[in-house]
Amino acid sequence: MNTQPLDAPPSEHTAIAAPSAVSFPQRYAGRIRGLDLARGLAILGMIWAHVKPFTVDETAWQVLAEIPSGRSSALFALLAGVSIAILTGRNVPYSGEHLRYAQLRIAGRAVMLLVFASLLGIFSTPIAIILDFYAVWFLLSLPLVHWSAKKLAISSVVVALVGPQLIVLISWLLGRNEMWGDGFLHTTLVSGMYPGLAYMAYVLAGIALGRLDLTQTMLRTQLLIIGPALAVLSYGFSWVATKSFASEAEQWNSSFDIGLDPIRPATFITAIPHSDTTFEVVGNLGVGLAIVGACLWLAPLARHVLLPIAAVGSMSLTAYVGHAVFLHFKQDWFFGDSAAPFLWVAGGVLVFCTVWALLPWRRGPLEWVTWRFSQWFARPALIAPAAAR
Length: 389
Fold this sequence. Notes:
Radius of gyration: 21 Å
Number of strands: 0
């Protein structure tokens, strides 16, 4: 197997050469099809969350229908972290010029995500666009990409424990002083649908995961054990706590009205979608790890049986932007009582991505644009060392 990463700087072979007497860990390489499957499921889950049948009845079907809500975006954030790890050296992190080059490429991707988010702002829909949050996660990760997997995992735990409480505290303080912030940083870090103070726990966990060797069988097994255990424990504790200390109405009100006096216990113990509590973050992280583990096991099927889902995951940016633009022209598909809108949108995305994947192009349309821009954006990192020589 080729050990040269697909997106490494052109001079990497000579720059990292080492004496044969010294043993270095081998960097795994090649496309990880299981990650494409997981990313494809995240996109399909987000589409479902956007146009799923709407009902107020508490039935088993309604409970199942809510599973992708919140968890799809959390999986998306976890996989964003894995992508950052891959861009910065996988299980053998880059250093020096290579690391600076990779960091500039990540920054370039963030710039393009902000551009796409701004363009999607023209197409009004009830969808909470995630791309500008995604860009901020990329930028926040830049100073941390040289950290070890252990340090990143510990940081993820710290963010999961502290970040949600900071969201409550900041929102409460602003609310008490009638300072309802709506600036870009306040929205992307605190008050938005995907606040960085909570979602960076997923991103850091993803970078830590990407620093491990994703080709190892043992790792896949561990993910299938650790992931469900985290989910069951976190959601279970939350369920017991909310049944004991809060009514259902208090759970919902406390999650979306932070800043009002007084702060209710349910603000900290609920795990409903997008409540961004520690219980929800840890539970969602467990679900995400389990899905990644399962998809890594199913990777051999990504070339034929599961090709459509893997194709969506390989061009997730194109699929996300495309479905958001399309739904601008189908406003009546939101909050309906039929699954037909999901079938049409998801089916269209699956067909387009599958056909594109069968063509002789490595990247989706928007992925190619982003890749080209990131290469140009990172060009100074290649020119400066050459000029110095």
